Amino acid sequence: MTLPIPRPGKIVCVGLNYKDHAEEQGVELPAAPLLFAKFTTSLIGPGEPIVIPSLVTKCDYEAELGVVIGTTVRNVSRENALEAVAGYVVANDVSARDLQFADGQWTRGKSPDTFCPVGPLTPAADVPDPHALGIRAILNGETMQDSSTANLIFGIDEVISYVSRTSTLEAGDLILTGTPSGVGAINRGDVMKGHVDGVGDLDVTVV
Fold first, then answer.
1. What is the pLDDT of residues 46-100, one digit of tens each?
2. Which of 5, 84, 178, 199 has minimal Cβ neighbours within 10 Å of its Cβ?
3. Tens of pLDDT along 176-197?
């Protein structure tokens, strides 16, 4: 496995964090970040395939901006939060919906091996405003998600500060910041590209 980042101590994810996705779901905007985790064994690098387990019958893609923490922080303020960021990656929060809904919570459905592909790391210094980046998911040549990080409900600084109030963030930790509208199913044989302006591309196949 060739990962563009060190294996993180934890992968922290934010659910329902785009205004357009909340509208698509027909739900109210959350009052605070909705956090969940993916197991670190779900992480794969560019060029490695998403492998859908035989027991999974409904699998979705979720193109996301990933944030890699570069320094240990605890109870950091929003004003200082972005100083803790080492860089950004394109990520895909692959989700086994049948497991997620059957369990009534998200961990197992979000964490199968290979269900967290990430692209190459772009240093934070090369991304002047992470809250103004186009984000897209292209499935078998068709654009399925097309939004901007300007639609984030909780910005990256707010998420880092919020998480750090209760859990120490350490260098190498990965935060997935949420997905915009247009989430849909992937199946074995599909080819998917995730793209974030100024960060890069993530190409994966599904087997």
1. 889 999 999 999 999 999 999 999 999 999 999 999 999 999 999 999 999 999 9
2. 5
3. 999 999 999 999 999 999 999 9
Strands 95-96 and 59-61: antiparallel
Determine how β-strand 134-139 pairs with β-strand 95-96.
unpaired
What token pair was written down for 120?
Answer: 């190459």
Among the listed residues 122, 179, 185, 192, the one whose alpha carbon sits nearest the alpha carbon of residue 148: 179
Are the C-beta atoms of residues 150 and 5 closer than 8 Å to each other?
A: no
Q: Is the pLDDT of residue 38 over 70?
A: yes
- Cβ density class 110-131: b for 16+ within 10 Å, e for less: bbbebbbbbbbbbebeebeebb
pTM: predicted TM-score of the whole model, two decimal places: 0.96
* Pairing, β 63-69 against β 59-61: unpaired
58-97 as b/e, with b when 16 or more CB fall inside 10 Å? bbbbbbbbbbbbbeebeebeeeebbebbbbbbbbbbbbbe
* Tokens describing residue 110: 């979000």
SS3 84: helix
Phi-psi region of 61 (alpha: psi -120 to 50; beta: other; left: phi over 0): beta
- CA 95, distance to chain mean position in Å, is 11
